[in-house]
Amino acid sequence: MEKLLAARRAGEQGVLAFYEHRIGCICRNPRLMLLPMDDHLAHRGDGIFESMKWVDGRVYQLDAHIERMQRSAKGLYLAPPCPWERVRDIALEVARAAETENGMLRVLMGRGPGGFGIDPAECPVSSLYVVAYRFKPMPEELYEKGLTAFRSSIPAKPGYMARMKNANYIPNVLMRREATERGMNLPLAFDDNDFLAEGATENVALVDTEGRLVIPEFTNALTGTTIMRAVELLKDEMPIVFQRVREDDLYRAREVLMLGTTGDCVGVVRFEGQPIHDVRPGPVARRIRDLLRQDIKDCGIPLR
Where does the sequence pass through the membrane (predicted)? Predict the structure, then answer.
């Protein structure tokens, strides 16, 4: 224990509070934040997770994230170690324990400890971990100048994998590495039929020449909580369609948008080095961001 407490870990300053269900309490010392090595979540990626934020003391889209986590759990034949209502309560308790006005929550559910094979039967009880950590908002300058995007060499995940937010994120990791190597912001994955799927951790949409918000079908992509909330907030202001999108559609678009939990909505101004429209974030990107920011104030769950 003395060695454990003395051992530094990278990023420990970002950890605010965490919870493990086996122990049933919240801790704020990041050097005690451990994951059992025999949890299939650790050595097989057999688990699911959700990430959400709180801003100005209000947790955003908690229920939408919990609902999606339930769908992901069903896809993995995974049951939580406690009722779903308790999972929700624990998430709020951990966020409160962080004692900050802004932060991020990561809720992870694994097959649980029990062995080093692949058989789920090794694990008698599933695992639940909740971590609160510091929120690093996207720099404001990126909203002003926009993002650069490219076609990733990493293909979109198979549909059954993409549609649940599972802990096997190797393709996403490789996409992010590729973006760093190419000096661009947003890698975009395409499926075997050459249709746009999603970014490394974000959904993508576009505004076409008819002024419609076009969202790629979620065939090989995760149904994003942010993009679906944006649809709900924007549905009375402009036409919205879900359809397959090819690479050429991005070049013809009036706007290309990135939507996700951390950044809300950001305009993409170049794809593969080529300009999108007038190479500036457009009015729809700004409008969606404004709507989402106001929605946090109106609908976020107060921590206190």
Answer: none
* Token digits of residue 276: 């999108």
HSE of 230 in the Cβ direction (CA atoms, 13 Å)?
33
**Do 193 and 157 touch, CB atoms closer than 8 A?**
no
In a domain, 263, yes or no: yes
176, HSE (Cβ side, Cα atoms, 13 Å): 8
Entry pTM: 0.95
**Eight-class DSSP state of 13:** G
Q: Tell me the sheet residues that pair with 39.
A: 113
Residues 9 and 112 in one domain: yes
* Percent of the chain residues past pLDDT 90, beyond the cut: 98
- The Cα 29–Cα 46 span in angstroms is 26
Domain end position, chosen among 133, 156, 189 = 133
304 within a domain of the structure (yes/no)? no
Residue 9 has pLDDT above 90, yes or no: no
Contact 255, 207 (CB under 8 A): yes
* Claim to verify: residue 283 and residue 171 sit in the same structural domain: yes
The C-alpha atoms of residue 260 and residue 268 are separated, in whole angstroms, by 13
DSSP class of 197:
E
Residues 288, 241: one domain? yes
The answer on pLDDT for 14 being more than 90 is yes
In the 8-state DSSP scheme, what is residue 123?
-
Q: The tokens of 216 are what?
A: 């790629």
Helix axes 225-234, 283-299, angle to 10 degrees: 100
Q: What is the distance, to the nearest Å, from the Cα of residue 29 to the centroid of all Cα atoms in its chain?
A: 25
Q: Which domain holds residue 77?
A: 2-133
Residue 121 falls inside a structural domain? yes
